[in-house]
Amino acid sequence: MLESRLIDELTEQVLRSPELERVVEYVATSPQVLDAVARQTRSMADEVAVNVRRRAESADDAAERTVRGWLRRPRPQPT
Amino acid sequence: MSAGVTRVPYAGLATRALALAVDVAIINVIVFACAAVLGLVGSLVGDLQLDTFGRLLAAAAWGLAVGSYFVLFWGTVGQTPAMRMMDIRVRRAGSTDPPSLWRSFVRLIGLGLAIIPFFAGFLPVLVDDRRRGIHDMMAGTVVEHADGGGPVFSAPVP
User: Fold this and answer.
1) How far apart are CA B147 and CA B87, in angstroms?
2) Residue of A nearest to B127 (CA)
3) pTM summary value
4) Helical axes A18-29 vs A2-16, angle rounded to 10°
5) So where are chain A's domains?
6) Is pLDDT of B156 > 60?
7) Given this model, what pLDDT does residue A2 score?
8) Among partner residues B6, B7, B14, which is closest to A60 by beta-carbon distance?
């Protein structure tokens, strides 16, 4: 019980300490951290774009195949 | 590559439709944001009410902004932002260059004509060997995958 209160007090003190604020500020403004977040966001956006592209290309394929099938007009062989 | 399929370097209907929809959304957000700012400034000065002439002027400004967006992007880099996202670009048929500004303007007119009959002007994309819509036929342009390979696309061959 006593130990638990001690831990709580210590945690409170650490959270209120200006040192912790400095550490958080340092991490939040660190170029490495910002760079990593930006890279992560970019790679996620890239992944979404690639996925959308792939699905759209499949839809291109399906639509053209269907219509050419109806018209019995297959795509000519490339020369 | 398996037998019976061929790589197609030209962009198909779904890819192009998606790019067009995203472009229209982008330019409309920009135009309406500008209009909202103008309206806000106008409301600070006085009571802003558009009469018929004002509405016609606003519609003309919208048309000019949308037209300029497409013509300038096609005519300079051959890609709008959404086409870049979809990794496709427009070029003159038989050349690697983007269309000239004049050709881009003709393509814009063609795009309007393709849209008016409920987008029927895009249907030739499904059967044309170079996947051209009527606006491409009018302007002498093709839309292809920017990496030139038609990466994962396959279309049936006889």
Assistant:
1) 7
2) A68
3) 0.76
4) 60
5) 17-69
6) no
7) 63
8) B14
- Are B117 and B84 in contact by the 8 Å Cβ rule? The answer is no
Closest by Cβ to A60, choosing from B15, B85, B129: B15
Q: How many CB pairs under 8 A join A and B?
A: 74
Give per-residue burial for B10-39: e unless 16+ CB within 10 Å, then b. bbbbbbbbbbbebbeeebeeebeeeeeeee
Domain boundaries, chain B: 8-147
Where do we find the tokens 């779904």?
B14
Separation between Cα atoms, residue A76 and residue B130, nearest integer Å: 11
B118-139 confidence digits (pLDDT tens): 999 999 999 999 999 999 999 9
Q: For residue A67, which of B145, B14, B136 has the smallest C-alpha distance?
A: B14
Question: What ipTM, to 2 d.p.?
Answer: 0.77
- Report which secondary-structure segment, H or E, holds B142: strand B141-145
Are A53 and B87 inside 8 Å of each other by CB? Answer: yes
Which among B119, B127, B128 is the top mutation candidate for probing chain A, defined by the most A β-carbons within 10 Å of its own β-carbon? Answer: B127
For residue B4, the model assigns a pLDDT of 53
8 Å CB contact of B156 and A68: yes
